[in-house]
Amino acid sequence: MADRRTSLALFALLAFSAAYFHHPVEYDNTSSRYYLMSAAIDYGRLDIDLYKDQTIDVSVAGGHTYSNKAIGTPLAAAPVYWFLRRFTPIRHDAPLSRRARYICRIVTTTLPYALTGVVMFRLLVNFGAVPMDAFLTLLAYAFGTIAWIHASMFSGHQMAANFGFLSFAAVWFASRRGSSPPVWFLAGLSAGLAALADYTAIFMAVVLVMYSIVKSSRRPQWIAFILGGAVMAVILMAYNRRCFGGPLSFSYANLGYGEFAEGSRRGILGVVLPNPSAFLNLLISPSRGIFFIMPVFLMSIPGFAALARCSTKSQPEFGRAELATISVIVIGYLLIDAGFYGWHGGWTFGPRYLVPMLPFAILPIAFALDRRWLAALLAVSFAQVALAQVVMPHTPEDIKNPVLECLIPLFHEDYFSENVMSRFADIHGVVSFVPWIFGVVALIAIAYRRIPRDGPASTPSASRAPLYIFPLVGIAIGLLSIRTADEHTVHYYRSQLLGHAAYVQRSPTLARNAVEEKLMSDAP
Q1: 413 with 46: CB under 8 angstroms?
Q2: I want to staple 224 with a disulfide (CB 3.0 to 4.6 A). Which of 89, 185, 416, 519 is the partner?
Q3: Taking the C-alpha atoms of 107, 109, 112 and 117 in order, what is their torsion angle to the nearest 10 degrees?
Q4: Domain boundaries, the chain
Q5: Using one digit for the tens of pLDDT, what is the confidence trace for 412-441?
């Protein structure tokens, strides 16, 4: 019962933290997915011809326009949307109304994200982590990474993260308990759904297949895992054949937007050998760097070393198979993204293509956790991620310093994401986020009280101080010194962002600020 209450407290914490927010301005990455869902349910078709002029994220084949996005998220949301459109007051709304999109996102992205957090905590404790360190690691993932942002969006990346990690955990628990093949089938189904939600997760699914083979004690178990994944593969191939003429003809091989189409012709769907410059930017740049925006991951470095020492002891809780699996997934994603022509992810905050591997990258922190330094690293991570969550997560890739050049100026110009208070109580601005703060603090306190105090406390290590001090100083220097070369470009993008928000939210204040930014962008 105590474990159940702990799990419920953690689930409520993560679900509330992400469900409170809604980003009403939908850009191509999410809108293209919504259009496919609407086309299928509202109009009974797979093409998005009716929406083709509203997004550049399209594929073209056979005279029709299709979404170029992975189909897992629209597929998972389709039953929810179908129910809303037939049995609730939403049936009287126009297609893709704001409340319909919000509910579909909650069910398909936010709630699985909360479940992933619960499973992450339980898995870390079973791996041998101190329960309090496992709890702090979960908080680092929930509030110090862009997973929190993507859990409040209709994100295929976060869906892949959720179901890929759940598959990994399911295999571990199933191998420990000697579970029957149906459990392994569900684990494979979860891995397949992750791949269906984000095509880069096909790589992750292959790694998980190998992990299931290593962890299974009998052949029927890993065969069941593969069959579960094969169900999703059949769905994808049927969709590809119906829309693009062949089971292996992916949407990314039929892109309709010229620049995207040209890039996708390189290598395998746009992925070639890693670009050193892109790799470096993915690590340390202010706009896309995982260690710059989310410095909590600095603690993963000694964490991997600690897990390597642990795995050499052949402990059943965490062995070489687990270390190899999470290492290959993390390194593989970095290399794949660094070799992708659009590695920056377009209009987004942080390295969105790396979101599926973040649950795996965060795990090692629990085994080398320095609570004093974690507080500092998490504070810097939270400040940047929370700013994008409170304002908006769509910073253009040309802006070199999104925090100082985009998010803070927009904050001062009254650009805020929609939230529960602004939507249902007509309370706007900074004050609308106060209930979220009180709610999160209360839920953290409730969860904290239920975390077992058994096991030795983690102790700070003075030898690791430079590992954390120098990067934090570097982040401060980068925020203060790095700027986009052309200031007029920054004003132009801010005017666009404000204009889009003004249109969706019907805000005269945002419209006026958009005009002022546009005038500054045109100034000599």
Answers
A1: no
A2: 185
A3: -140
A4: 2-449+467-481, 487-522
A5: 999 999 999 988 888 888 999 999 999 999
